[in-house]
Write a structure and sequence with these properties.
18 helices, single chain, three-stranded parallel beta sheet, about 50% helix, two-stranded parallel sheet, globular
Amino acid sequence: MIVKDEEEMLPKCLGAVADFVDELIVVDGGSTDDTVERLQQWSARDPRLHAISSPGATIAESNTQPALDLDALLGGLRPVLKGLDGNKVNEVSNAVIELLQGQGGALSQMLSSTSSFTTDLAEGISGAAAIFIAVGTPSRRGDGHADLSYVYAVAEEIGQHLKSDAVVVTKSTVPVGTGDEVERILSEAGLKVKFAVASNPEFLREGAAIGDFKRPDRIVIGTDDEWARSVMTEVYRPLFLNKAPILFTSRRSSELIKYAANAFLAVKITFINEMADLCEKVGADVQDVARGIGMDGRIGPKFLHAGPGYGGSCFPKDTLALLKTAEDYEAPTRIVEAVVKVNDARKRAMGRKVIEALGGMEAARGKKVALLGLTFKPNTDDMRDAPSIAIAQALTDAGVEVAGYDPEGRSEER
C-alpha cells in the first residue's frame, strides 16, 4: 500500500488491514517527520507489525503491486546456494520459486531475484562476505559419532577456491571442536586472504522452518573475532531490526548450545511419556497432568505431549552425538543416556500395546492393522527414525498385516 499523507492516512490504513493479516512489514523510505518513531511504538503494541527504516528504499506507484528497491532493503546481500547434485539443485531451485509464487506475484518476483543456485563452489563463494556450511552430519555407523566428513570436505574445497575475505560459518549441527578443525583446514590451505570461522547453529523445526527463520526465538553466533562478529551482525540485520535477539558466544559454546537444546527437549518428551505410563497404572489422565505442570512458567507446555517417542533427523542423532562427545571428554551425561534408552524401548512398546488390544499374540496373528500417520511429526515427509517404523516392525513380527498411510510421506513410506 502507498500512503501519501502519513499523519492522517497511516493510522487508518494500518487499522483497516489489522484484522486480515498475520504479519505486516512497513518500510519507511526516509521520512523526515516522526513516522518511524510512531511505527516502532505501534510495533511494540502489536507483534505482527514490523517497522523497518531504510532511507534508500523507494516505492514506485502502480495500479498493481509496489516495486521495492532490493539493494536498499537487503544492503546488497545476495544468497547463493551451492550443491553437488545438479538434479537436486534444480529441484530445490524450482521448489523455492514455486513456493514464492504461492506468496503472490510481486513477492515471488522480489524474493526469487535475490537468490541463485549453482554446483560450482568457486562461482558460489566468489565475493561472498559469509560462506555457510550447511551439509548433513548423520550418525556414523558403528559408534554413533556425528559423521563430519561432508563438513571437512566442504572446508577443504573452500580452502582451494577462496579468493576474497570471508567468514566461514558452520550452520550444520556439529560436535564441540568442529570449528577448530575447520579453521585448521583453512589455515593449512595457505590462503592469501583474511578469513574467520564462526558457528551459527540453526533451530528450525521441520514443517515450520520459514516461520521460525522469520521469527526466531534467538540467533546464536559463536565467534571471538570482532571482524566476524560485525559481518554476522550485518547478515542478520533484517531480523535484528524485527527484534530477533542475537546471542554472541564463544565458538565452542555455540556448538554445544544446539546439542544441549535438542537433548533437553528430548528429556521433556521422554519424561511425559513415562508419566503417561504411570498415569495408566494409577488411573490418572496424562493430558490433565501435562496441562497442570505446563502451566508452571518454569516448565512451560511445549513438548509435553505423550506419544510413541521422538524420532526424525535431529533428536535421535543429536542425543547420540552428545553422548559420544561427553564420553570422549569423560563427562558422562547420565540423564541423556537414560532418555535414549527409554525412547528406543518405548517405540517397540507401542507395538506391543496394539497387540494386547487385539487380544494377545495368538489373536493378533493374521489380523490387519492400519497405521494412519507415518512420518515422525505432522507437516513433513521425513520418515527418519519415525516411531511408526518400530511399531510396524513389532506388529509384523507378531504376524499382523500392516497397512500404512500418510498424506505427506507417501513417497517415503514405501
